[in-house]
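Lab notes, practical 5.
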Amino acid sequence: MLPERKHVFRKRRASALIISMIFLVVFSALAVSLAAMSNTNVQLAFNQQQAGRALNCAHSGQEIVRYYLCGLTIPADVLPADRLQAVADGLQDAFTDDGVTNMSALYHPSMYTLTIPNVTLDSMTNEGFTAMVTFAGKFDALNVLVTGSSRQADKHVALSYQFDTAANPIFDYGIATKGPLHMQGNVGVDGYNESIEASVYIESSDALLALQMTGKSSIAGDVNIVNPSAYVDIASNSSVHGQTGAGALAHVTIGADMCDFPLPNLTEFEGYIQHTFHAGDPTSNVTLTNVQIPANTNPTFSGHATIRGIMYIRSPNTVSFTGNAEVHGVILGDGDLSNPSPDGYIDFGGTVDSYDVSTLSQEEFGTLTEHTGTFLLAPGFRVCFRGDFAVLNGVIAASGVEFHGNAGGTINGSVINYSDARMTIAGNTKLVFNRSGMQKNPAGFEPITVLKCIPDSYTEPSL
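Output from the prediction step:
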């Protein structure tokens, strides 16, 4: 019988410790990994938050820039290549007028670039924006790139703006005069369709008495006076907006915003001159077609004078119509707007019959029939109406405009007085202004240039 064997089991000491260490290392690595992942997510979230804030700053900056750009008007005599300089000047003036001290417009002529340096929106979070404006195309549009920033994040948004023409706000008034207005007698200024057509604009920068209404005078619309120190004298029987006394004064604004008067430009008419009127030519019961009157001719037309096309009056000249004047077209005077001649005078002593230039035969007068919206444009000349009229078809603009006696009727347009001297409406005059369907930019005036935003041009470029 074999002897019984004994099995001896050796104890594996410290195995549990090793396994524990393994798990500890694994869990530690996992913990480190999760911590790193968490930090990365926090950083990503922070970066995304800053990018969002930067984009918001860019949008805010673009809205601010758009607000100011769309409120600008570019002077008519600015050349296309100089428009960006005019935009910079206009922006800087607007910032100053609004009391904005943290924005400025800097023009760099060598690069045709306008910049608005950093504008801080929130100093606590270091948020703000900058803007750069450049030409697009051949000086007919602008590109505006706004960069928004928040800490280290930057975002860009871009918009384009087109240079466009707009109607001058002066044409929104029945009467617009640089000098004060004096109304005396049984005088009325009414609107053909509604009272707003008879509104009056007065600058009166050199005279404190801006509006004087005596007798039974009336203005159906409102009155805007630019001179903040001006005052008015409205008789008890006179009215503004249908009201007298304190009610009339409620419709007079003193210290109103200034409007730019439209600049005359007669060059578009010179090519249509076909005939010249000479001293000694017949002046009674005559018909004049596309005629110019040389300086110092000083004719007096009696009987029934008919004008077809244009009458182009060279300065200085005194032209009088003692009888009836029938105008199928436009009367023009080429005087100096900044230095009117004392001898520049156009006088209508009798009835005036007016017909728009578009009523002429296109076969005979060609493209002249397209120069609509103006009845008389005579910078540097004084103009006086002393007879009545049924309708004057277009704007009347001169360096001095007066209505006396029984002058009156309907005016399809505005009356614009470029003179700082007093404008007088006296007698039994009643002017009725009809601006319905009025030409946006009447012939002979430089249009206003404005900036029009192009929403479809919006982009978020990555630079």
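Observations recorded by the TA: The CA atoms of residues 336 and 380 lie 5 Å apart. The two ends are 97 Å apart (CA to CA).
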